[in-house]
Amino acid sequence: MQGQRGTRRTGSGGGPHRTYSVRARRSRSATTVRDNRNRFVAGRIVLTLVLVAAGLKLVHIQAFEASALSERAERQRTTIIDIPAERGSIVDRNGAELAFSVETRKLWVNLRQMRKDWAEYAREHPGSGKDFETRAAEIADHIARQVPHLVTEQDLLDDFHKDGSFTYLVDDVEPSVAEKISKRFPEIGYEKRAKRVYPGEEVAANIVGYANWRTDSPEVSEHNLHGLSGLESYRDADLVGTPGRQIVDTAQGADVVIPGTERDMQAATPGSDLELTIDSDVQYELQRSLAAYVDKVKAKGGSAVILDARTAEVYALANHKTFDPNEPPSSPDAMGNPAVSTPFEPGSVAKIITAVAAIESGTATPERELSVPGSMRVADHTVHDAWSHGTQNFTVTGIFGKSSNVGTLLLADEIGPDRFLATLTKFGAGRRTGIGLPGESPGYVPPREKWSGTTYGNLPIGQGLSMTVVQMTSMYQAIANGGVRVEPRVVKAKVTPDGRRIPEPAPDSVRVTDPKTADTVKNMLRSTMQGGEYAYSGTAPEAALEGYQISGKTGTGQQVDPRTGGYSDRLHNITFAGILPAEEPRFVVGIWLDAPDTTIPGGSSAGALFSEIASYLAQRYNIPVSGDPGQRVRLVR
Fold first, then answer.
1. 349 and 307 in one domain?
2. Residue 263, in any domain of the structure
3. 246 forms bridges with which residues in the sheet?
4. Using omega within 30 degrees of 0 as the cis cutoff, is the peptide bond preceding 581 cis?
5. What is the pLDDT of residue 514?
6. Which residues contact 264 (CB under 8 A, 6 or more apart)?
7. What is the DSSP secondary structure assignment for residue 543, as one 8-state letter?
8. Calpha distance 415→483 (Å, rounded)
9. What transmembrane ranges does the database entry give (predicted)?
10. Which of 226, 257, 276 is the last residue of a domain?
11. Dist CA 369 CA 397 (whole Å)
């Protein structure tokens, strides 16, 4: 039994325990296989889902987002730029150009990109001696030699060494020169620009004005020239045109235009031309004569205007000082136009208002005689004539021919202040003429309700009110035109880009007086130019022009002394208005001299200057000489 227990077999599997162990291992192995299989299946499922999602995304992009993404990519490498519009020209009445534009280029450089490119070149080519500094020096030297009148080499080097990432280098470069520079040095780009040219330089500069590039206002396009003074500013909307638009491709990471990629989106529309009433030859002569006379009589300044007697078109309008718009001054005041913007007290030249009111009312005739003392009391002050005399018998013609203040006031008393004011108003005093130039002053006439006792002792003799030389000349245009005052104007027509000529609206007109009164007053004022003995001599025999009848009037208005606030005994406005010729008026000329030295020859009268201007007009326009020289009339009995 014991032996049997020792030899007892547990079976070939090693007994029950061994059988259990084998089964366990088999079970774990099967589980592992199943787990691996499950993970593989799951991975395949996930991968399939990812691929499906990617495919769906690709389909979505290609089907729905392709256009938007393409557009976004296009925006990243394209730029829209404005194309400057050609600014309209300004021409005189004969077609001579006073202002026009020429196409130019403005050079620029992307400093950031240039520094980057040449730093990489220096790293890749050590020892070449070429880097940003040498390249900048090379470009600066070349450009300065190509356009020495526009920029210096040092100026360009300073620009290349600015802290910014971009800078402009030089403006007004000729297109062909700019293209050659850019072709040789790809770093240098350019913008299309235009330059305003004024071939007459100072001729009519105060009328035409000045245009340049503006970036000071968000409402004003920086891609067009814009007017800064004169008609360039006043009629900017007509002249400026509409810029076009262009698409260009730019290099990646830079604002450098890739040559040959320009595509127009919208063509620029040129501005309209302006045709003026000005005759540039007459304008030149008036400016020259006025400036010389102002210097001769040592005046502080002066202005003059020439109007067509019938249409009131401005043939010339000048100031003693002007400017060259090709090189405009830094001060805006130098670009002003005192002829329309600076009113003054005209003095006796304004007695034409009293003369018209007196003749029209029937209270006076040219031959009527009045007893005129050398002075008279008006309210709290005494009015004197310009020369000492006792009581004398003046004809009404003589009162104006010799410019008697006392005689004028005697007639004004007969007229009455209300009738005088009505006539003054019809002459346009205190209102802008509508000449069509910027900065025009209306002048000043005191309101009727504010007249004091001395007001009516001043107004009839041209004191206590103010007007511009254009307003003053416009009054005489009314007399020359049979009593009808026409608004003066400087623009005759607009010519559109397609060649259509559009005349300016017809100027307003006002009948100041009847033709008979106008003709009577015009003939009375011929006496101003009479010379000889006292009884016949007018105030301006030097204004006469041989062979022609002239009608006109002198004026001497006291200026206010800035030190005392009262009228000055030494500062005067010297004025003259004349009609050429008197029998068939063609032109009216008005002159104002600001505080000339009245102690030197010519300083107390502008008559000699009028005669010089009238002589030029008569020759230029072949005005026939007067058939009847006219009879001298006695002014003092």
1. yes
2. yes
3. 81, 264
4. yes
5. 97
6. 83, 244, 245, 246
7. G
8. 19
9. 41-59
10. 276
11. 9
Task: Using the 3D structure, point to which of 276, 303, 336 is the last residue of a domain.
Answer: 276
- Answer yes or no: 474 catalytic: no
DSSP 153: H
The CA angle 327-596-297, to the nearest 5 degrees, is 75
The answer as to whether 155 is a domain residue is yes
Q: Does 150 share its domain with 55?
A: no
Q: How far apart, in Å, do the first and last CA atoms of the chain sit? A: 194
CA-to-CA separations, 62 to 51, 70, 71, 76, 411, in angstroms, rounded? 16, 11, 13, 20, 97
The residues pairing with 590 across neighbouring beta strands, listed in sequence order, are 305, 577
Task: Please tell me which residue in 101, 289, 348, 527 is annotated as part of the active site.
Answer: 348
Q: Are residues 470 and 545 in the same domain?
A: yes
Tell whether 205 and 287 lie within a shared domain.
no
578-623: pLDDT as tens digits: 999 999 999 999 999 999 999 999 999 999 999 999 999 999 999 9
The DSSP secondary structure of 324-354, one letter per residue, reads: -TTS--S-GGGG--HHHH--B--GGGGGHHH
* 406, 360: one domain: yes
Taking only the tens place, the pLDDT of each residue in 473-517 is 999 999 999 999 999 999 999 999 999 999 999 999 999 999 999
380 part of a folded domain: yes
DSSP 449: G
Least trusted range by pLDDT, from 116-125, 384-393, 403-412, 579-588: 116-125
Do 599 and 513 have their domain in common? yes
Domain range holding 251?
Answer: 84-276
CA distances from 611 to 214, 532, 587 (A): 44, 18, 13
Output the CA–CA distances (angstroms, integers) from residue 167 to 254, 259, 414, in the order listed.
Answer: 13, 19, 75
Q: What are phi and psi of 365, to 5 degrees?
A: -130, 160
Residues 534, 542 contacting (CB under 8 angstroms): no
**Same domain (yes/no): 248, 344:** no
What is the domain-level CATH number for residue 206? 3.90.1310.10
Q: What pLDDT was estimated at residue 561?
A: 86
In a domain, 9, yes or no: no
Residues 343 and 626: their CA atoms lie apart, in Å, by 35
Question: Is the domain of 553 the same as that of 487?
Answer: yes
